[in-house]
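User: Good morning. I'm curious how flavin mononucleotide would be positioned relative to this chain. Could you predict the structure with it bound?
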Amino acid sequence: MSNLVDVKHYKKPDLEDLNLFEQRKKDHIRLALDAKTQRLAGDDFSRIKLVPQALPELNFSEVSLETKLLGQKVSSPHFISSMTAGHKQGFEINSLLAEASISKDWLFCVGSQKRSLINPEEISDIQQIAKKYKKVKLVSNIGLEEVIQFKIADILKLSNSINAVGLIIHANALQEVFQNKKDVVMKNGFKAVAEIVKKSDVPVIVKEVGFGISSEMAQKLFDIGVQVVDVAGSGGTHWGMIEALRQDKKSLSARAIDHFADWGMSTVDCLLDLQSYLNSLDDSEKIDSSVWASGGIRSGVDSAKALALGASAVGLAQPLLKNLIRKNKIGSVDQVIQAMDQFDFELKTSMFCLGLKNVSEFSQRKVWYGR
Ligand SMILES: Cc1cc2nc3c(=O)[nH]c(=O)nc-3n(C[C@H](O)[C@H](O)[C@H](O)COP(=O)(O)O)c2cc1C
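Assistant: Good morning! Here's the predicted structure, ligand included:
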């Protein structure tokens, strides 16, 4: 494989690199909370309607959101989608997200662990969290560029070092281009992912970061053994816009970004694209080849629509961050829990009114229309 980096010989980031890294992570948080980077592709969830069951034939208290994700029993199909890590505020933000995820018993997918890869001797914020919060159910995260360029063994250490129950690889071609780097290294991606899948002790998940994964691509990923595809479609946080807003106004990327405002496939379109594939699976295959939905989920009703369209889990990024960080200040764990409660309540209410007792019942009856 070309471009392989041996961690031992990797150029250690100097102070200037680290300062730039810190600034970039800070900018990401600030810009993700700026309305200019949100819902640029519109709200496709409004195209999908759910079919209420006027006589639901069950009591509200009977509805359960409990499910199994990556072999773990969790209280809800909702999960905390990968966000920030590896910088000065990383420990504080991720500790609060970890506490909230334990209190709610949700999966917690952490932000990119790239810093651990380039600084393996450092104990990272996420490693500290894994040590401190024994009950937390963590999922690792690393970028496709790193998977291609670094040694497989070093990538696998990332999930081992935090006792993760899964390993997410994020594919973020558009975001990387808008960072104005010298090159974006994405050649040999399938080969690298296939090798990780072969050697990983935990399930491998591939996600986008808000521009979607088509049915054709999802099937190619399942064919090489990827267990979960999180479509992470457009309709929520726009990572091209976030990176472009960080660039000089006269740069090519800053000038180009408006033309990419509605780039990608929305989460709804990704799930619609996957319908014939999902309908061809029997129940056991559905567990092995899971589709998760994230990107633009802004209410528990959106979550219900994603589950109705065949997703088995639903991820939230910006909506949780927005509740945790207000007016530039990191708030309390209760603020995150309150937002999580709201999403769960709205999903549970939707399920009750659809006459669905359990998450698994979404796949037994078609409860949506629209296109
Ligand atoms: C501040 C912030 C940092 C993020 N960092 C990562 C990351 O490190 N790795 C990753 O896979 N996705 C990352 N994401 C992308 C999210 O996981 C998600 O795919 C995207 O924001 C779309 O979801 P949303 O509309 O709910 O925000 C980040 C999102 C936010 C808001």
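DSSP finds 17 helices and 14 strands in the chain. Residues 333-353 form the longest helix (21 residues).
Let me know if you'd like a different ligand tried.
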